[in-house]
């Protein structure tokens, strides 16, 4: 039996692009990593969070350089894990994103004017501030909602409104 030209051999990459398979792989990996973190003494609500880990990385470096005592999450303050977990996650995300973009030939430098760089930078700073005020990542937000925290409910509403506004702005820019 000869395969049609439209039927190609499915590689691992094509299976991972399927939502069910990709979600199952990511879920299993996240559960495994969380189990390892919890076994190392980490709290259950400290998963992967760019806001928390960036804060811990910056605070750890600042504390190391100046001898101050800025806040670190309990897991990051652990002498065995201090500085290692936040550094590895944030740097790992950056290296992984660049490697994936290079591998799939999607890496390109976006050129813009000074105003676009300033707006993008201010947006990133505001995102981090609001994420840390809300209580950090959506995973922790879901846990807090489960415990009946009303601030987390308002945080979820703010996320939904922010996504809606962002989509509207992006669609307006695409039409122009």
From TrEMBL:
Keywords: Membrane, Transmembrane, Transmembrane helix. This is YeeE/YedE thiosulfate transporter family protein. InterPro entries: Sulf_transp_TsuA/YedE. The chain crosses the membrane at residues 20-39, 83-105, 117-141, 147-167.
